[in-house]
């Protein structure tokens, strides 16, 4: 992740420490995400290793742990992806679901490293960010507007 994004995350969690889960050992991160059918970007794996999972700004970021304010069914990105897959959401079969929007639409990362949304109301699948870093900095932390 970019230095600016890492610094913004550190400042955010210094103010709201209860919104992050606990760190995850790298070996556990690698073993868990080996189940995904494509390599995940290092910035996402680093986020999971450091924070486990979290709520960043208004968005949940699914990893391998849930923060206390997250729901019991939001324990891991793998479990959330499976839930959306069982519901046959378009696009999810090619993603790891890493978040949801405020309407409950899945936001996922694809093999190309881009972050996508499957918008049920619009009936569209669209790119929301070119990378995980861009999703965190732009969508979650609104750094572009500061």
SSE arrangement, N to C: HHHEEHEEEEH
Shape field? globular
Residue stretches low in confidence (pLDDT < 50, at least 5 long) are none
Work out the number of β strands.
6
Described by strand count, sense and barrel closure, the largest sheet is: 4 strands, antiparallel
The N- to C-terminal Cα distance equals 18 Å
CATH topology: SMI1/KNR4-like
Task: Briefly note the structural class of the backbone.
Answer: alpha+beta
- The amount of helix comes to 25-40%
Q: What Rg is obtained from the alpha carbons, in whole angstroms?
A: 14 Å
- Count of individual helical segments: 5
Query: In the residues, how many domains can be counted?
Result: 1
- Integer average pLDDT: 94
Structural description of this entry:
- With 146 residues, the protein is an alpha+beta fold.
- It has one domain (3-145): 3-Layer(aba) Sandwich (SMI1/KNR4-like), CATH 3.40.1580.10.
- The protein is 34% helix and 19% strand.
- It contains 5 helices and 6 strands, in the order αααββαββββα.
- Strands 3-4-5-6 form a 4-stranded antiparallel β-sheet. It has a two-stranded antiparallel sheet with strand order 1-2.
- The two termini are 18 Å apart.
Could you give the topology of this structure?
Elements (H helix, E strand, L loop, with lengths): L2 H13 L10 H8 L8 H10 L2 E3 L2 E3 L15 H10 L8 E6 L5 E5 L4 E5 L4 E6 L2 H9 L6
Name some characteristics of this structure:
two-stranded antiparallel ribbon; 146 residues; 4-stranded antiparallel β-sheet; alpha+beta; SMI1/KNR4-like; globular
